[in-house]
C-alpha cells in the first residue's frame, strides 16, 4: 500500500513534531512500545541528513525483524512513540534537545524528526529510545552559517551498492575518515532479482523483482542491516537522492520504454513508482518536504556551506523526456539526441539550476548528479557510439547548463556523479561537439560500493577512451568511494578503492588524486602510482596538502 500525500503529510508531521531545542516536546498522546521479546527495534541503525546552519533531520526505523516477508519489520499495526536526544557529548551529559516522534505503520514505523535551533558548524551526538530499547549513538554536524568564513570542508561521495554483488567494506573505511558530510548519488538499493556475488552468502529470502511497497521495504532492510553502512550513517550527516535502481533500471518519467518493464501499463508503473518513493522516504534522513505525493517526490534541492561551497542535488529521473532511440544503451545512429526539446532535468528544474549558478556567492559550485555529464564515445571514429540514458542523450540540456555557467562566469563548477561503476576524471566543455570549445567545469565520477563485483584496474573500453579523448583524464574499475577536500584555493579529489568485495576485510588505498585550482576550470592529475604498481595506502601518500602541479 502506498499513501496519498495528504495521508503521508499527516503521519509525517506527527513523526517530526518535536523540534524545540532545550524542551521536551511531547505530543498530546503517547503510544507505548511493545515488548520486544528478544528482537532489537533499532536493527537498521540510525542516520542524520540535510544539515543546515541551525539543524539536521534525524532518522531511524523500528524493525525488530527487518526481513519479515510482509515488509512491516516485525512491528505491530499500531503506532509507537519514539523519544530522541541530541547532545554535545557522546555520554549525553550535556543534552541540548529532547523530543518525541510517532512511528506509524503508514510509514513503516520510521521517524524523521527535524531538529532546529542548534549552533552552526558544530558536531552533535544523538540517539533514540523506544520503550526500554536504546538505539546506537549517531554523530552529526550542522552546516556553517550562510556566508560565514569557512576555511575547509571534507566530504565523500558514493553510489551503486547492490547487496549481493559484494560486501560494503568501503563504508567501513569511510566511517573512519575525517569528513564533514557524505553525499550519496543514487542506486542505494536495487530492484532486480538478487545474484550471488558474496562468498558464503545466501539471499534466497529475497528473490524476484521488487514491484510493491513490501518488496521495496525488504530491499532497503537488507541493505540497511549491513554494519559498515550503519557505521557510515552514524558517523556523518548525509545528503541523499535517487537514480534509477531505486525504482527500475533506466526508468525516466512516465514514458514508454524500459521503465514499463513487466507492466507495459502507465498507471501500474506510476503505482510502482509511488511504492518505491515511499520506501525511499521511509529509509533515508529526509525532511517532510521530501514526502512523496504518489509517484512524485521533490528531490532537487540546494545546500550552502558558509562561503566555501554550495551543493545542488539534481534529479535526472523524474522530469526527463524518454531516452532517444534505445533503452539508454549506446547507439551509433541517433540524431534525436540533439533535439532541442529533449530534456534530462525538465524546464523548471533546469531554470532553477541555472539561476542558482548565477546567484551563488560560494567559492565552489558542486552539482550532485546521477548520470555522466562528460561525453563518452564508446567506439571512437565515425559514427559516434554514445549512450542515451546519460547527458549524451540530452545534448541540448547539457549545452544549456554548461553554456550558462560559461556565460555567467561561474569560475569553480565541479560535477560529482555516480551510476557508472567506474572512477573517472574529466573536463567539461561548453559544447562537447567542438574540441576548441572552452573548458568550463570538471567532472568526477565515483565508482560503485559493490555493484559489478570485484572489478579491475581499468577496462579495455576505458583505456581506448582515454587514448582518444583529450577531455577524459583518468579511469579505474575497482570498487570504493571518492574523498574530497576543498578550501578557497584548491579542490582535491582522492579516488579511494578496495581490491575486492566478494569477501570482507579488503584494505583501502588511494588509486589517484586529481585537483581543481580556484579560477581554472577543469582538472589536473596530482598523484597516481605507476601503472603496474599497487596503489599506495592513504597514510603513506606523499603529496603535500596544497601542492598544485603544472597543468598539462
UniProtKB/TrEMBL annotation:
Stretches with biased composition (Low complexity): 533-545
Its domain of life reads: Bacteria
Q: Which SUPFAM superfamilies match?
A: Metallo-dependent phosphatases
Question: Annotated region Disordered: where?
Answer: 523-552
Q: InterPro entries annotated for this entry? A: Metallo-depent_PP-like, PhoD-like_MPP, PhoD-like_sf, PhoD_N, Phospholipid_Metab_Enz, TAT_signal
State the Pfam families in the record: PhoD, PhoD_N
Span of domain PhoD-like phosphatase metallophosphatase: 155-495
Q: Which residues form the Phospholipase D N-terminal domain?
A: 44-142
| PANTHER family (alphabetical) | ALKALINE PHOSPHATASE FAMILY PROTEIN (AFU_ORTHOLOGUE AFUA_5G03860) (PTHR43606:SF2), PHOSPHATASE, PUTATIVE (AFU_ORTHOLOGUE AFUA_6G08710)-RELATED (PTHR43606)
Protein name per Swiss-Prot or TrEMBL = Alkaline phosphatase D family protein
Q: Please tell me the species this chain comes from.
A: Nocardia huaxiensis
Organism phylogeny: Bacteria, Bacillati, Actinomycetota, Actinomycetes, Mycobacteriales
